[in-house]
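INTERNAL AUDIT FORM
Audit reference: QA-55
Scope: verify that the stored structure record matches its stored sequence.
Auditor: D.O.
Record contents follow.
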Amino acid sequence: MTALSLATRSIREHLPVSDVGFGAAQLGNLNRRTTDEESTAAVHAALAAGVTYFDTAPHYGLGLSERRLGAALAGTPRDDVVISTKVGRLLVDSPDTADRQDDQGFVVPASVRREWDFSADGVKRSIEASLARLGTDRIDIVYLHDPDDHEEQATREALPALIELREQGVVRAIGAGMNQSAMPARFIEAHDIDVVMLAGRFTLLVQTALADLMPLALRRGVAIVAAGVYNSGLLSSAQIRPDAHFDYAPASDEVRERAERLAAICHAHGVDLPSAAVQYPLRHPAVVSTVIGMRSVAHVESSIERRTSLIPEDLWAELAGAGLAPDPVGAA
């Protein structure tokens, strides 16, 4: 690891977060098993490196990620960390499927099932269950989780319920976490939300959010948390792998060619492509943190190194000049 340290940025000027966040989906056995010991070690390594922001969700491992994260943070003063989780998928007991494995990518028994619910009651029940799994008395940030097919109910019920809970002090900030930018932009226009977690739509490879969400967020003072910065792993290695994925599917020739151009320019400047992928979103003034999925101490160390490595300004200028990634510094 480098000797540099992480920076802190604030949501609404009252909720400071580290500019690298710990994405805890993998603590829910995403794609393969992870032990309790590996999970705890990763969280503790992140804390030691200066990470203060930890993100999870009931969806991740059918509650396993929340339980493991809560256990790993149990000895840490609560005011030293910011925890976010999500609502919209209630976990309901499912004894009929308990002998099967989850079918949504997590290696856990399907003893509960996910049930879409963006009602006011569903939001409150979800938060109550998350508080119990996390073993805490409050959740700092609550996101609507992928409400793509539930916009009407999310707008009419879920967001007003979250605003009420924020006013009561149960949560400190509210928003939405999505893989698109158009709907979160509409949420910002319709409601007083604080933060949007945007996955894969403001990255070194894809900047579609610059057309709608990013300028609106900046004008309204809404923070952006950038997730999915590797675009399903495409940008996670210095050289583009032959089996690379993009948007959860095999990358097309066109997308691969664009990624290879990015990698070549980074290499010419002596920069590791994943480091540029981590640091690029943070150049936008609305972005407060980049959340990176971490499973192990090695993942933590590589993520911190990528964030803190020095990148010459000439790289950003060349990427912008090549029409690959406009430099968002100074965006207004």
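Auditor finding: record pair retrieved intact. DSSP finds ten helices and 14 strands in the chain.
Action required: none
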